[in-house]
Amino acid sequence: MGQTFEHDVVIIGAGPAGMCAAMYAGRAMLNSVLLERGFPGGELLNTELIEDYPGFESIFGSELAQKFADHAAKFGAQIKTGVTVTTLRKRDDGMFETTTDAGDTYLSPTAIITAGGTPVKLGIPGELEYAGKGVSYCAICDGAFFRNQTIAVIGGGDAAVEESDFLTRYASKVYLIHRRDELRASKILQRRVFENPKIELIWDTVVDRVHGDQQGLMTHLALRNLNTGVTSDLAATGMFVFIGFRPNSGIIEGHVDHDEMGYLRTDPNMQTSIPGLFAAGDLRAQLTRQVTTAVGDATTAAIAAEKYLKALRDGEGIPVIQATGGYTA
Predict the structure, then answer these.
(1) Given this model, what pLDDT does residue 246 score?
(2) Fewer CB within 10 Å of terminal CB in the chain, N or C?
(3) Choice among 20, 93, 101, 142 that is catalytic
(4) Three-state SS for 302?
(5) Which of 101, 141, 233, 257 is the catalytic position?
(6) % of the chain at pLDDT higher than 70
(7) pLDDT digits (tens, 9 = 90+) for 30-74
(8) Phi and psi (nearest 5°) for 295?
(9) Which pLDDT belongs to residue 318?
């Protein structure tokens, strides 16, 4: 039999956005809880080095995640790990009901969803069959298993390019396969790839199939050039896929405004189309998704949630956000 807990605000997802929101909720003396299915850190735990977070010229992703968690805890944040949220809905009485796979229920007048996203898969034959047997979506998790081997990285954005460079620490050869004729990654990351002798780029090409041996391990990839239609085989024992993320917004029950990819649309104060529900971080529709934007979103969301609660407690009705970003009753 599950338990029922009551809080001022429930925060879902302990990535940078969630931990920052928890920190600000703690500073505001709100009774808050941060729910996380894994370990605090989110995508920070899948990134070896962070080099674009102000104040740290270079810091390990896991180290920065720990600093976030420690800082949030300092201000009284309650972080519950190993908790998978299954649904989030707003009841007729105005309370948010967050349920978990353990059968527990969390009630709160406000909620902040910072659940991030899930890696997009290629959707090709052999991808699922060889997942964990050559196919991976996390370089820092699995890179060490491919020492002195030939591997392929799929994608052309920041993640694909950065992780290609990282994987050369282990692999003897890295093929970076991109479906276009130019990369979308930042110029500084591109330069590292172009200057790395272990990396070879394969342009205008997609992977059609993952092949393996009788032991169930990946052995090679079937490639196809999009311009010529020519097919070929690439010998590789590993394939790392970095072609994007899908937002984990499916837990929200009922309609909430989102873009064509499922990313949540918010107003300037991070409030979604559901009053009292705020969104921050990678699942919010925005130009870029970085640690800096995640914590910026979360700062605004937490402060807006505090003001929303105050208006409710003062009997001023549901706050309405004006174009200037201010609140009125």
Answers:
(1) 87
(2) N
(3) 142
(4) helix
(5) 141
(6) 96
(7) 999 999 999 999 888 877 778 888 998 889 889 999 999 999 999
(8) -75, -30
(9) 61
Q: What is the pTM of this model?
A: 0.77
3-state class of 120 per DSSP? coil
What totals of helices (H) and strands (E) does the chain contain, helices first? 6, 23
Angle between helical axes of 187-195 and 158-167 (0-180°, round to 10): 30
Q: Which residues contact 60 (CB under 8 A, 6 or more apart)?
A: 48, 49, 50
Dihedrals phi, psi of 192, to nearest 5 degrees: -60, -40
User: Could you tell me the two tokens for 223?
Assistant: 């490639």
Separation of alpha carbons 214 and 195, rounded Å: 37
H or E stretch including 113?
Answer: strand 110-113
Nearest to 256, CA basis, from 100, 106, 88, 119: 88
52, 138, 204, 208: the catalytic one is 138
Tens digits of residue pLDDT in 163-197: 999 999 999 999 999 999 999 999 999 999 999 99
85: helix, strand or coil: strand
With a cut of 60, say whether residue 327 has pLDDT above it: no
Q: Report long-range pairs for 289-296 (Cβ below 8 Å, ≥24 apart).
A: 290/52, 291/16, 291/44, 291/50, 291/52, 291/53, 291/64, 292/52, 292/53, 292/54, 294/15, 294/16, 294/17, 294/20, 294/114, 295/16, 295/17, 295/20
